[in-house]
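Section 3.1: Structural characterization of target chains.
Under the original work plan, the team committed to producing a structural model for every single-chain target entering the pipeline before any wet-lab resources were allocated. The record below documents one such target. The sequence was received from the expression subgroup and is listed exactly as submitted; it comprises 336 residues.
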Amino acid sequence: MLISPARIPMNPNELTQLLKERARTLGFDLAGACPAVESSLWPHFRAWLDAGFAGEMQYLERHAQVRRHPHGVLPNVRSVLVLAMNYRTAEPIAPGPKQGSVSRYAWGADYHRVIRTRLRRLGELHRRLVPGERARGVVDTAPFPEREFARMAGLGWIGRNTMLINRRFGSWLFLAALLTTAELAHDEPTTTDHCKGCRACLEACPTGAIVAPYQIDACRCISYLTMEHSGPIPAEFHQPMGARIFGCDRCQEVCPHNKTTPRSEEPSFRPRNGMNPVDLTVMGNLDVAGFDLQFGDTPLARAGYARIVRNATLCRRFTDTTVPPRGANLPENPRE
């Protein structure tokens, strides 16, 4: 009887290197590893919920406790490989008469689908390398604080607009993670906040949703109002919303760290015809079937037919109001 030799456990450094290399070949621009520990921001998140800043996003309250530690997503998790993809492609075109703007992350295919496919492939390599361990890929639909763990993995810092900011790619990043019960070699966390005293995002927010540095009242945020809020949009936000039909990039557009970021070559994220900008008349006159056919595989599907038609109808009242150009309405000195 032949006895197979005992399998030599893979070294954490080797495992991490192989996973990172595979991530790069799959199109991820950044990859960093960190320990699976309790989130240091959980108390702040709990206070944010208690302040009512989540609005109608009741799912955040339902799964709040799970966000406290990654083992709520994957039992016995030991490490997290945090990943990021650059989605800066073309520059936004200011909408003209009867046109509206869509946040640039939604110009192309639904990034959830794009990234999940690549996470599965990364998970396949993980299973081959450490068959006795388990892994789970997540991309902002699981109750997992990606931005905090991205900071812990050395991918960047959390800016005053609560976005993760990387020195090279700015904040134009989709975040994902591979949670694993295996041990990885951990990167050094980012400990420097390069926002310092800058107030550009706070001053430029059309609705004053950034109520304080690192704190957003979602109930005032145009992204929330156009995607998550049900029912009529409050009148006080109609004029600030302007021609925005889905999302708002204002706080990112004025960020100094986003001025010289590289363009993404990912074909899936390139703007589709009619998305930059959109025709409000066509959008507002779609039926459910037409909406599903045209936008069913884009991020607009999350908002759903009723909200998009509501937004388009409202924006048509302000067709003479375009989204302010990059740098408009900034204070002369955005430093405190």
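Residues 200-318 form one domain.
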